[in-house]
Amino acid sequence: MGAERGDRARSTGHPAGTCAADLPALAGNVRRLRREVGAWLAEVCGDQNAVEDLVLAVGEALANCVDHAFVGRPEPGTMRVFARLEGDQVVITVRDNGRWREPDREPGWRGRGIPLIAELTDDADIDPRPGGTVVVLRRAVTTTQRRTHVAGSASGDLARSADLRW
Fold first, then answer.
1. Model pTM above 0.90
2. What residues does 149 pair with on adjacent strands?
3. Average pLDDT for residues 85-111, to the nearest whole number?
């Protein structure tokens, strides 16, 4: 039941200096995508603090996909991460194919993800669209090398696919 879908990230061959993967918007997949982005960042970024900050920011954006984008739907949609180098900046896009939900005015113990993302990045742009929300994170980094990271290459259990357009 859903376990197979949750176990497979889809990725393609990417230009040098990029990382991309998509998975169903399930809580366990947030951890998986954070690992993928973290592995890629460790390859291309010479600043461990930036790596940790960006992995946390990506995790918050992905958690928002899981917690908010698909409320009221019987099945979760898809969340996608695409990371690339642009000069001395890492640019990470997190998108879903769900629906934007305005933050609560009185979030209680929740509601800290977006402010945390803003603190951990140089720039964070959140763009709610009819077909889903797009979050673009930017941070200047010291780059080490420009290699392609294919999602799942470390564990070998993630499937490859060319179907990442949406």
1. no
2. 19
3. 80
